Amino acid sequence: MAEEIDQTLPQPDEYPEPCEDVVNGDEEEENNKHQSVKCSPNLLQMLKAAESRRTPQSRDRDREEASGTEETEAQKTDMQIQFNDQKHEFNKRPANTGRRSLSRSISQSSTDSYSSACSESSEDESSPRDKPQATSKGLSDFCIKNIQQAEFGRREIMIAEQEMPALMILRKRAGGEKPLAGAKVMGCTHITPQTAVLMETLSQLGAQCRWAACNIFSTQNAVAAALAEGGISVFAWKGESEDDFWWCIDRCVGAESWQPNMILDDGGDLTHWIQKKYPSIFKKLKGIVEESVTGIYRLYQLSKAGRLCVPAMNVNDSVTKQKFDNLYCCKESVLDGLKRTTDVMFGGKQVVVCGYGEVGKGCCAALKALGTVVNVTEADPICALQACMDGFRVMKLGEVVRQVDMVITCTGNKNVVGREHMDRMKNGCIVCNMGHSSTEIDLVSLRTAELRWERVRPQVDHVIWPDGRRIVLLAEGRLLNLSCSTVPSFVLSITATTQALALIELYSAPEGRYKQDVYLLPKKMDEYVASLHLPTFDAHLTELTDEQGKYLGISKHGPYKPNYYRY
Amino acid sequence: MSDPAVEVKLEVKQASKEVKESENVAEKYSAMTVSKNSEMNMGDLSSAFSAVPTHKPVKKQIQFVEDKQEFSRFPTKAGRRSLSRSISQSSTDSYSSAASYTDSSDDETSPRDKTQVNSKGSSDFCVKNIKQAEFGRREIEIAEQDMTALISLRKRAQSEKPLAGAKIVGCTHITAQTAVLIETLVALGAQCRWTACNIYSTQNEVAAALSETGVAVFAWKGESEDDFWWCIDRCVNNEGWQPNMILDDGGDLTHWMYKKYPNVFKKIRGIVEESVTGVHRLYQLSKAGKLCVPAMNVNDSVTKQKFDNLYCCRESILDGLKRTTDVMFGGKQVVICGYGEVGKGCCAALKALGSVVSITEIDPICALQACMDGFRVVKLNEVIRQVDVIITCTGNKNVVTRDQLDRMKNGSIVCNMGHSNTEIDVASLRTPELTWERVRSQVDHVIWPDGKRVILLAEGRLLNLSCSTVPTFVLSITATTQALALIELYNAPEGRYKQDVYLLPKKMDEYVASLHLTTFDAHLTELSDDQAKYLGLNKNGPFKPNYYRY
H or E segment at B247? Predict the structure, then answer.
């Protein structure tokens, strides 16, 4: 506890001991074989990926006092659950997204969003790897599904540009300077119109880009085509095999006469590959920018093991991203998701929200605004006190479950709503999950013979008790906001802008500013990201006068707050 | 603070103190500038993250300038601490301290010269009048009603006596609320000697009640500068009794011990400091390598911060405005300058009453939060002609200038919820062409030559301290945190705390919160073993990583 004072912000020490399956490749293989007995080969790669990743919870949950054995056990449970999760996901929608759905990385959700529907499944079954491809300009250093779709993809990108004003402003503001001139950026992210806007922004800022997909299913072929046509070397198509996945990454890195000096990663696969396969390139990198929780975790592992020999930037934990991914995004999507699926009216309804963290705060605020009577369950006394002060009753679920019309879970925990609760719910009670994996509602306990399941709409099941009472289960307990509502481009814009700024910062930092460690984005950059998004709201920022700046002892241009500020 | 006559008297008495203090401050300043530079270097991230001391500079620097400012106006100890937004300070202003009316006795002999004995024959204390003990006891009992957390702490820990053997010297405001704290500490096994951290805030009858029960208290209302240090010295310097813990508010006691009794100081098991200024002084000591005992910073604990700023201001903004102006809020156009914790609280309260709220903000992150929460972010100049109420909560100076005041509507209200009296440029209003008219206590009409009036509240000082009360519930949170910090420091195994300044462990923070939940009849959910294992948490907390923002 004595170290507490040193740990107001995340830093390497806070992250847990390396768990073997992340760092140790052999172990990973072994697990892989072990699992292969149980599941289809297609599932294999997902599991492997899932094992090597940790969810944000798992990162939070690791404490110094946790003993090694407990650690591994928790890990296993986690995997198992993850595994169930994926199976569901697979049956319904064979996307690699499942593997990352736990991390609440919004980037992932772009896979689910409506726009991705446009990547139509052409019946052309030959692998893009075997086809010779060339753009209209004769370039052939890329590998995608079908270059003919470029025009269609371009339209998609232009639509996305409309909703990502910050990146467009960044292009205009920095375009003349080319702050990334000479940067050779290798990226591994979802390939969607939103990331395409990011890539083209980087190009306009002077960088050369080569790109691969971080997810075998999320690629929008049309967008990839448009990017390839625009001269960016893209290696990605929808529905890659595991082998294709690594082949793409390798092609992306291994072009002769082109050595990357920056990495933009989402999930840590690219970083891992380069570190293992091309250690000499890895050493010469100027920096790594990582977006996902899992990737960050892997970087901290590397750093702890002393094997991170380049600076890395953690954009996941920046204030703006965190607040948008959790508080603001959930505040909107809880209403949207419930309306779309059930057309429920909120006014006067009794709701219990399990958990009063960022997500819970967002849900409560949104529901209260529509006149629902909100109860909160919470395990952490500090958050419980906050809930009290915000005017919500803090109850145990068992005490109110008979009266409520809706139960929304956002704890990150498992079995928060158990069968014993569901047995006592009113007829027509809606149960859904805004939390963080599909474990919060104990679904397994509902799959029993006496209960009848009836699918009434996509994502909506009625579970019918023998006495005719039904509860309405949304998205089979998976994340409501990802399954039943959309993620606004505005939120993705915040992430993308943060990534672009992190790349610029790392690339143009003077020698020695960043050492071989994982850094948070400087607060000033965070503030800059926020300021780029203010014009959307027509917000007019007040400027400090010189005198005021001096009085406060801060620069007129920020950073305006100390690092420990809670916002 | 609200009584001008007192201010004048004080000015003289405090003159010497002021000089000393500003030297002190200058010393701090030079040290601060260094760390400030490193803070500004964006590259120096890892070091910035690694230690709290380096986090502080921005805030500390602010503190400094304000200290000076504040000094020139209110040379009281209370004034100097009003900056810190330490609520403990505000207890001086609160209505409960008005209970000290009994001591307006015209007995002008200094308590120092009187021989005093309590009913048990002990004379190891120095208060105004031991006869008032019974009245003070009633005050304490009233306070106990609202401080259920401390009372339940007494019950829970009484049998264990976690402070058995602790010899605590304390230097805080002596009010009914701190008396509850002191008696809790005694009930937990500690021996206490107490003195006041403010020459005016002492409630004499409470001091008497404490002395009557055997706590050695050296304090009375209206001490002189000399009395102040005499009391501290008497408190520390007692034959056969060496303190081993310090509970301080403002750092004066720590400073005195450190300078005057270095040998005793070295043997101290720990210091618990509540105020921003005191914490700042401790960080200075620590930086200079001169802090030879562990210290606990209770000021920056989550619960205290949230209550002192967000929740407290959310309530007092409405209370303060209603009491002074009887204004109706619905449909009024309000500008709130600054969207930090205080600003967020004010906005939430006003929005709930149907005001049309706009925000001015310099920090783009906070501005974006305001946008997402549904408030217009504007510059003050753009809306100044239309607004009915301006509330400043920036911590900055001259946020509302004469130029802007000139353009305001007739009857608009200007007030300050921020952090010192610098936010509204009041000095610029003291010109011959403007007429000032005091219409109520704390309410001035400033009248322009053309007959336009602007209503200025509390002369630009803190509205929530001047015109509304601080709930005992908030003081209870601070007091409970202090008690737990003492217990933690006293019982920590050798080596857990080194010679540095620590934040209260999160678990303790959570415990403070949980003790206050009963007031709301809140039912905390317990994790099952299975769930705790899944989350990798202990069932009993801590529940969140340290960087969690709440």
Answer: strand B245-248
Task: Name B83's Cβ contacts closer than 8 Å, sequence gap at least 6.
Answer: B63, B66, B67, B70, B276, B277, B419, B420
CB B463 within 8 A of CB B438: no
Q: Find all residues with CB under 8 Å of A398, minimum gap 6, and list them.
A: A420, A421
Give A-chain residues touching B548 at CB under 8 angstroms.
60
- Give the Cα separation of A60 and A453 in Å (integer): 35
* Angle between helices B472-491 and B176-187 in degrees, nearest 10: 30
Q: For A481-505, what is each residue's pLDDT tens digit?
A: 878 887 788 888 999 999 999 999 9
**Residue B30 near residue B57, CB atoms below 8 Å:** no
Of B48, B372, B531, the CB nearest to A328: B372
Chain B nearest CA to A81, separation (Å)? 10
B297: which strand partners?
A: B273, B503
A522 to chain B: nearest residue by CA? B42
Higher pLDDT, A456 or B471: A456
Cα B33 vs. chain centroid, distance in angstroms? 25
pLDDT at B101 over 60: no
Structure-token pair, residue A195 = 């990331």
Which position has the higher pLDDT, A280 or B77? A280
Q: Please name the member of A320, A384, A396 whose beta carbon is closest to the beta carbon of B368.
A: A320
Q: Whose CA is closest to A338, among A390, A407, A281, A388?
A: A407
Overall average pLDDT of the A262-283 stretch: 92
Per-residue pLDDT at A337 exceeds 50: yes
Give pLDDT, residue B49. Answer: 33
Going by the DSSP 8-state scheme, the letter that residue B40 receives in this structure is: H
pLDDT of residue A321: 85
Rounded-to-integer distance, Cα B452 and Cα A537, Å: 34
Cα separation, B201 vs B219, whole angstroms: 10
List the beta bridge partners of residue A432.
Answer: A408
Residues sharing a CB contact under 8 Å with residue B311, sequence separation 6 or more, in sequence order: A389, B345, B474
Given the DSSP bridges, would you call strands A460-464 and B167-172 parallel, antiparallel or unpaired? unpaired
* CA distances to A209, A320, A535, B480 from A201, in Å: 10, 20, 19, 53
Beta pairing, strands B435-440 & B443-447: antiparallel
Element at A273 (helix H, strand E): helix A269-277
Contacts of B397 in chain A (CB under 8 A): 547-548, 551
- CA–CA distance, B175 with B234 (Å, rounded to integer): 20
Nearest to B550 among A71, A382, A563 (CB): A382
Q: Do the Cβ atoms of B359 and B353 come closer than 8 Å?
A: no
pLDDT of residue A125: 67
Q: Strand B356-360: give its sheet, edge to edge.
A: B376-377, B356-360, B333-337, B389-392, B412-416, B453-457, B443-447, B435-440
DSSP-assigned beta bridge partners for residue B296: B272, B502
ipTM of the predicted assembly exceeds 0.95? no
Beta partners for A394?
Answer: A376
Q: Where do the DSSP E strands lie in B417-492?
A: 435-440, 443-447, 453-457
Per residue, what are the HEC states of B502-513? EECCHHHHHHHH
Q: B377-415 pLDDT, tens per residue? A: 999 999 999 999 999 999 899 999 999 999 999 999 999
Contact A408, A435 (CB under 8 A): no
Round the CA-based radius of gyration of chain A to a whole number and report it. Answer: 24
- What pLDDT, on the 0 to 100 scale, is given for residue A102? 32
Q: Would you say how long chain A is, in residues? A: 567
Instruction: Name the DSSP letter for residue A479.
Output: B
How far apart, in whole angstroms, are the C-alpha atoms of residue A423 and residue A356? 24
Residue type, B390: I
Q: Are A321 and A343 in contact (CB under 8 A)?
A: no
3 state DSSP class of A481: helix
pTM over 0.90: no
